[in-house]
């Protein structure tokens, strides 16, 4: 660190994203990307828009917003597009957390929440998950701060029902509740419809997982018009052109090619169920996932051993060196072939370590 780095960031540990190794080709199941390429229509629109790169994009992204509103059943005034959903979450920390309004989230959840709190210098309170790694909704009633819930949660994959999410929103009338639906398309129940009923709700979603656009960086926030206007104030104060022309074009293609999106989500959910059953057969415990990953624990080997043995054999998964997580590995659901290969490798490791 240089001697010039502001003291206000003393002790800031950045978010550690999953490895993006360049040394060899892995079966890459560590960052919850889609195993499928983007919709060919999305790729075509992005390519066609590249010739206009010399011009700034429309900072309101009117065409993208219009198509999203038609496809997703919300008004244009109730949507904001962002540079990945990470940016939407960051905007929510900026807009709705301060000294008197801490961020409130589970102790085991998306690792970026505490980092957003720290860089924005707002306090936060972490609420422990129950012993079975589920969220007790009652813990979030009158939370006394801005609530952030990933649904399905990460890295557990466990989802709350929409009725449970609604209870949390209804029991926090004086605070904003942010529901992070990065993984909702793989089997969760979305809370987007509830923005019509609740003025304290923000739902964030991403194109990175179910719509195969992780590299394009596109996310969205849904909320009532007043909240979207707050978030726009933040966006226009930080980065008005937060989504590139090519990404906006890809987003339009991805939204219009609904069949491709639905097919891929269905395939991944099916592969997840098959893979889970096979892992259980091999003796693993697997938390019940509604996401495009599973969180699994081997009774005989630590999470770190499973992670490093898999890596040595060319399969990359995610391991978290933290209490209550270190026995597990998080495995992204890839294609059927990738998961079959992964199971073969796991069986090999188990045989060797017997
Ligand atoms: N929320 C959760 C729970 C995530 O796991 C991720 C992906 N790392 C994100 C949000 C952000 O994804 P993106 O910025 O790619 O939309």
Number of helices: 10
Largest sheet: 7 strands, mixed
* Average of per-residue pLDDT values: 97
Assign an overall shape: globular
Structural class: alpha/beta
List bound small molecules: 4'-deoxy-4'-aminopyridoxal-5'-phosphate
Which stretches are low in confidence, meaning pLDDT under 50 for 5 or more residues running? none
Task: Give the topology.
Blueprint: E1 27-28, H1 40-49, H2 62-72, E2 79-82, H3 84-96, E3 103-106, H4 112-119, E4 124-127, E5 146-150, H5 162-170, E6 177-180, E7 201-206, E8 219-223, H6 225-238, H7 245-256, H8 258-281, E9 285-286, E10 293-297, H9 303-312, E11 315-316, E12 328-332, H10 336-353
Parallel strand pairs: 1-11, 3-4, 3-5, 5-6, 6-7
Antiparallel strand pairs: 2-8, 7-8, 9-10, 10-12
Helix pairs in contact: 1-7, 2-7, 3-4, 3-6, 8-10
Characteristics of this structure?
single chain; 354 residues; 3-stranded antiparallel beta sheet; binds 4'-deoxy-4'-aminopyridoxal-5'-phosphate
Give a concise summary.
The protein is of the alpha/beta class and 354 residues long. Helix content is 36%, strand content 14%.
Describe the fold and architecture:
The chain has 354 residues and is α/β, with parallel strands linked by helices. The chain is 36% helix and 14% strand. It has 10 helices and 12 strands. The chain has helices at residues 40-49, 62-72, 84-96, 112-119, 162-170, 225-238, 245-256, 258-281, 303-312, 336-353; strands at residues 27-28, 79-82, 103-106, 124-127, 146-150, 177-180, 201-206, 219-223, 285-286, 293-297, 315-316, 328-332. The strands form 3 sheets. The protein has a 7-stranded mixed β-sheet with strand order 2-8-7-6-5-3-4, with helices on both faces. Strands 9-10-12 form a 3-stranded antiparallel β-sheet. A two-stranded parallel ribbon has the order 1-11. A hairpin with a 6-residue loop joins strand 9 and strand 10 (293-297). The longest helix has 24 residues, at 258-281. The model has no long low-confidence stretch (mean pLDDT 97). The chain binds 4'-deoxy-4'-aminopyridoxal-5'-phosphate. 4'-deoxy-4'-aminopyridoxal-5'-phosphate is lined by residues 84-86, 110, 150, 154, 180, 182, 206, 208, 214, 219.
């Amino acid at each position: 660190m240089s001697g010039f780095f502001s003291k206000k960031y003393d002790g800031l540990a950045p978010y550690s994203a999953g490895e993006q190794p360049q040394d060899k080709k892995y079966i890459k199941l560590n960052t919850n990307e889609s195993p499928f390429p983007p919709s060919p229509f999305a790729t075509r629109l992005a390519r066609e828009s590249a010739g206009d790169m010399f011009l700034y994009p429309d900072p309101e992204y009117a065409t993208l917003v219009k198509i999203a509103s038609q496809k997703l059943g919300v008004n244009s005034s109730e949507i904001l597009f962002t540079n990945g959903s990470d940016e939407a979450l960051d905007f929510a920390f900026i807009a709705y957390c301060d000294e008197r309004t801490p961020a409130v989230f589970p102790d085991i959840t998306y690792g970026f929440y505490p980092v957003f709190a720290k860089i924005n210098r707002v306090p936060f309170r972490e609420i422990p998950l129950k012993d079975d790694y589920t969220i007790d909704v009652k813990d979030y009633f009158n939370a006394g701060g801005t609530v952030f819930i990933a649904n399905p949660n990460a890295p557990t994959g466990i989802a709350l029902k929409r009725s449970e999410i609604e209870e949390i929103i209804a029991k926090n009338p004086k605070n904003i509740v942010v529901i992070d639906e990065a993984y909702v398309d793989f089997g969760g129940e979305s809370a987007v419809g509830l923005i019509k009923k609740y003025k304290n709700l923000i739902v964030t979603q991403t194109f990175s997982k179910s719509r195969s656009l992780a590299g394009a960086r596109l996310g969205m926030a849904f909320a009532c018009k007043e909240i979207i206007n707050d978030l726009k104030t933040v966006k226009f104060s930080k980065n008005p052109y937060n989504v590139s022309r090519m990404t906006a074009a890809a987003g339009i293609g991805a939204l219009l090619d609904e069949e491709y999106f639905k097919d891929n989500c269905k395939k991944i959910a099916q592969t997840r169920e098959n893979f889970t059953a096979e892992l259980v057969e091999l003796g693993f415990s697997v938390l019940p996932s509604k996401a495009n990953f599973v969180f699994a624990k081997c009774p005989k080997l630590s999470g770190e051993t499973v992670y490093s043995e898999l890596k040595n054999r060319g399969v990359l998964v995610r391991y978290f060196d933290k209490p209550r997580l270190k026995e597990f590995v998080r495995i992204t659901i890839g294609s059927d072939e990738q998961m079959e290969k992964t199971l073969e490798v796991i069986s090999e490791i188990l045989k060797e370590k017997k």
